[in-house]
Design brief:
Layout lengths: L7 E6 H15 L2 E5 L1 H5 L3 H10 L4 E4 L2 H9 L6 E3 L8 H6 L2 E5 L2 H14 L3 E6 L11 H17 L2 E7 L11 H19 L6 E5 L1 H6 L7 E4 L21 E6 L2 E5 L4 E2 L5 E2 L4 E6 L16 E4 L2 E6 L7 E4 L10 E5 L8 H8 L3 H7 L5 E5 L7
Parallel strand pairs: 1-19, 2-3, 2-9, 3-4, 4-5, 5-6, 6-7, 7-8, 8-9
Antiparallel strand pairs: 1-10, 10-18, 11-14, 12-13, 14-17, 15-16, 15-18, 16-17
Helix pairs in contact: 1-3, 6-7, 7-8, 10-11
The protein binds pyridoxal-5'-phosphate.
């Protein structure tokens, strides 16, 4: 490992991930799929997958083939579902590595069956219904053909339909009638799959928000991402007991006292109104500090929250420390698990985005450090 200093560090508490797995599983009362796409929402997919499966998650979920194979290469043997593939994906490789495949179209199904025939081993597939999100998944009109082909291939021994699934568009608003409509459409799709002769063991629809707040969406398995990282899916979702897993921290690299009327950062968009101490934090939008949060965001510095002033630059941002005694080298927490720390949810609000984008936006320059606070330090 390099001894060079990192300008920023994302400390990931794997004990928090484990605790969140148990909290969500208890709330849902179902088996859990830990969704570790996008490098575990920026937390490190392999480390999160290990912690989550050790804590009882029975499944791992990834978006892409590369993500699924990374888990296998690291020695993880838990069932993995991967769900977003180009039709010319190397399905043989995935089948050979026992990766279950989400399937939304007949051309994908043909390609997977051909790969399975070639390999001489059946593919495990989860057929995806589009119940209202209009992304992946087969529409009700295409579902008949998809399930009919799947039944044929199953009889031929080329694949086994292990699951039927879909994804919700607005579960963080559990009372939205569209959520109930999607569940109804999903139940129709499950019935139609059974009518086509399929017998899937796994019926799954819920993401974190639905796992926590929509009992009808839970079925036998919930696919949880955000909540496992300790972030509440939304104000209307009960999230008691979730522990933030990531702390994004840095250290002050420059401090200056400036008079009133001093321009700060590009533009300048900000001019000091009185004499203040400015602290330079060496993280910018290339590191995941959203440019859109400039002038609104706060960081934890010298025992209190201080505002980020002026434009966030690519590599750095400036914090108004007021009259606080701040020194070069002082720790700065951008978001964390402390009771007074800004949260990922705060940053999402300041940036006008969702917490997923804040977590996955933490850049490659930020060093990840995994901790396991087996005895919770809070
Ligand atoms: C990302 C994702 C999830 C996890 O969603 P969260 O809201 O983060 O829990 C579940 N299912 C699918 C298909 C996803 O793409």
């Amino acid at each position: 490992m390099s001894t060079l200093a990192s300008l920023g560090e994302a400390v990931v508490d794997l004990a928090a991930v484990a605790a969140n797995v148990r909290t969500v599983a208890a709330a849902a009362g179902t088996e859990l799929m830990a969704v570790v796409k996008a490098d575990g929402f920026g937390h490190g997919a392999v480390a999160v997958a290990r912690a989550a499966t050790a804590a009882g998650a029975g499944w791992l979920g990834t978006t892409s083939a590369a993500e699924a194979l990374e888990l296998r290469a690291a020695g993880l043997t838990a069932p993995v579902l991967s769900w977003l593939h180009p039709p010319d994906e190397d399905f043989a490789r995935l089948i050979g590595d026992h990766v279950d495949l989400g399937v939304s179209t007949v051309p994908h199904l043909h390609a997977i069956a051909a790969a399975a025939q070639h390999l001489g081993a059946p593919a495990h597939v989860h057929l995806k219904a589009d119940t209202g999100l209009s992304r992946n998944g087969a529409t009700a009109g295409d579902w008949v053909e998809l399930t009919a082909w799947a039944a044929k291939y199953e009889v031929a021994g080329d694949l086994r339909v292990r699951g039927v699934w879909s994804h919700l568009a607005n579960a963080e608003h559990p009372g939205d009638p569209a959520v109930a409509r999607q569940i109804d459409a999903f139940e129709d799709a499950v019935r139609a799959a059974r009518a086509a002769g399929l017998d899937p063991d796994l019926i799954h629809l819920a993401n974190s928000a639905a796992a926590l707040a929509v009992p009808r969406a839970r079925f036998g398995l919930c696919r949880a991402g955000l909540a496992l990282y300790g972030v509440a899916p939304g104000p209307a979702v009960p999230a008691a007991g979730l522990r933030p897993a990531m702390t994004l921290r840095s250290r002050v690299v420059n401090v200056k006292r400036v008079p009133a009327g001093t321009g700060v950062s590009y533009g300048p968009d900000h001019v000091t109104r009185r004499p203040v101490t400015l602290a330079l934090v060496p993280l910018g939008f290339a590191d995941g500090v959203p440019r859109s949060a400039g002038g609104r965001a706060e960081v934890w510095l010298a025992g209190r929250r201080c505002r980020v002033v002026g434009r966030v630059a690519m590599d750095q941002c400036v914090v108004d420390a007021g009259d606080r005694p701040v020194r070069v080298g002082d720790p700065v927490v951008l978001f964390g698990a402390g009771p007074d720390h800004p949260t990922v949810t705060d940053w999402a609000r300041w940036a006008g985005t969702n917490p997923h984008e804040i977590l996955t936006g933490v850049g490659a320059r930020v060093r990840r450090r995994h901790e396991n606070t087996a005895v919770a330090a809070r």
